[in-house]
Amino acid sequence: MKKIVLLILVLTSVFAAEYQYGQGTLSFKGGIFGVDKTLSTDIKIYGFLNEHKNIFGTNYFFAYKLAIYKSQDVKNAIETYNSTIGMTSQTSNLSFRYKVKGIDFNFVLGRDFYREGSDYLGVGVLIGITGPYIKSRSDSNNSASSIPGYEYLNDSETKMLTYKIGPSLRVQKELLSFFTVYGDVQYGFQKAHIKNDSAHLDQYDSGNYTSYNVGIKFQAKSGRKKIWIISFSPKFFVTFGYRYSYWKVKNVKLNDISLIGPADISFTVKYAYFGIGYDF
């Protein structure tokens, strides 16, 4: 899968590409590992993408985005124990630190139903993969190790790999020769593989994915260039925007652990970004 993603990026970047940097908030929730409420932490996003590129001048287009994200540590008291077996002198101060990292890759292939100049309204099919993982470690002292199930939670790593497919709507409107607004809305059906060796968790579950993006683009005036027999019009631009993405996996259950039952896991990423790019 990594080789396929790399090949797509290399081939598509020949036509156009954009590099983005964003900062925002990542929130996650799941009734496993003591996370009974939504936790939020700062996050940084590094992206390589193309919002929309017509194929050989036709109304058919492709789009792609590879995003790498990394969160800060977030600390949480372990409410699952407190609500299930009752708060004790051991559980009252029991807490864990979590860190979320991962990648998100989406590829869209579609058709413009309206296209005039640089303006377009297109509909396509989204396919993608997302690979977040959560690392947790205990802030508690050794006395907590006697609590039932503690060994499944301490210094643990939960890996997820989701596959998604669904519709994508993309739009762009040039307001001035140097100023453009754009956006996209996407929805996907997900199948997720979730694994945690410490908790004997290795299963597939279904879910959904939602994302929307709005931005503005400032493009420099381009002129016709020629290198040998190749003629082209290079365009350089900068972007500013905001993206929201949401992943949900349903009914995750820790095998062989009666303490924690089936629960949904969800991630929400909200961030503002700045980008620079080129087009030919």
Could you outline the blueprint of secondary structure elements for this entry?
Elements: H1 2-13, E1 16-30, E2 39-54, E3 60-71, E4 74-77, H2 79-84, E5 95-116, E6 119-138, E7 156-176, E8 179-196, E9 201-219, E10 225-227, E11 230-232, E12 235-252, E13 263-279
Task: Characterize this entry briefly.
The chain has 280 residues and is mainly β.
Features of this protein?
single chain; 280 residues; mainly beta; ten-stranded antiparallel beta barrel; two-stranded antiparallel sheet; 2 helices; 6% helix
What report would you give on this structure?
The chain has 280 residues and is mostly beta strands. It has two helices and 13 strands. The strands form two sheets. The chain has a ten-stranded antiparallel β-barrel with strand order 1-2-3-5-6-7-8-9-12-13.
